Amino acid sequence: MTVAPERADAASSVRSKGAWAIVGATFVMLAFNTGFGFYALGAFNRGYIDSVGMSVSATSAGATIFLLAGGVAGLVVARLMKQVGIRWLLLTGTVASAGCLAMLGTVTQVWQMWAIFLVFGLVSAGYSMIPTSAMVLGEFSEESVARPMAVMATGFSVGGAVLAPIITAVVLNYGIATAGIAMALTLLIVMVPLSIAATRHAPRIGSASEVAATVEKATGKVQHGSGGWPFFGVCIAYSLLLITQVSVVIHLLTLATERGIGGAAITLSLFASMAFVGRLIGLAIMPRFTLRSLSVVMAGLQVLALCILAFTPDLVWLAIGAALMGLPSGNNQVFMPLWLLNLFGAARYPTVFARSNLITGFSVALGPLMVGVVHEGAQNYQIPFLMLAAAAIAAGVMIATLPRKGAVDHEMS
Q: Model-level pTM greater than 0.70?
């Protein structure tokens, strides 16, 4: 399976002059979605451990609740796109998320943190990969959607590389209350006008079913059922890979603190920065290698990184492990959607991705909690991180066994 380059006449295949502007807008949306959400969870947890005295397992459960909520909300978002349109989802998700962020500093009990994380996970799905990918699919019909989708999804990594270090610094230096209010205001100032501008043609891109029908007619892609080993193989493999990524982000600062490693906040920034670098490398080499081979290599890098982090004695090795872990993380967030596009075609993508997002969301959400519980029992991070390395090995094997023909019977054009 090859991720083919765009055709020379790509300019004629876009549906509007502002197609790449939509890609840019969704890029920013995903940067805020992950930068203020997934990548910020580690800083939030460290802040609650230091200021409120919560345990590692309690804060890990909060991250699990956030991720579970996002997975469940994905299916709801996919359905609501057909009924209320994307603009409503973007604006509602933004405003509600800002409210959750503003309340971070009011937490004094564990249940309060869990409640905020539950609502935050639900509402932030309103500007997640599901609605943004539908927007991009609505703009690109005749050409391959692989490159626009890959560029859009790079926002995941940029959110971690640019926003997460700032959030971590503010939380550690000024407290979680100040960080939450600043994040809430920033989210409103940036996302509200961006969402309105990006959906100015809301009737055209507001219905996921209309987007799917248009893309199917334009691309002529053959559709497949969303079951069987190909679908669940992708879901399970990338659940395991994403579990390792999420767990590292959530527990990296605490691991460093326990081992007396100073200056560890920079390693989280390094992780996110290398995710961005890895994504750029991935964009450059995608036309030359198969999606399968790239995916297996990414899994191998995660195994190596996790083994280093399990035994790291100092800041140098912590930084090396974080950097190696970051390289594949940006690509994995893109490769799973590309696998689904290859398997099921662009027309079915919004629904299929929502289903896969629910499965991976449930699975990934268990990662931080599992690491926290095992850590509590073992009193160290070696055992849980080696367990994560084993999970990454299993993921690589699963990806290697995905079918070359049958369900995957067409190249991405």
A: yes
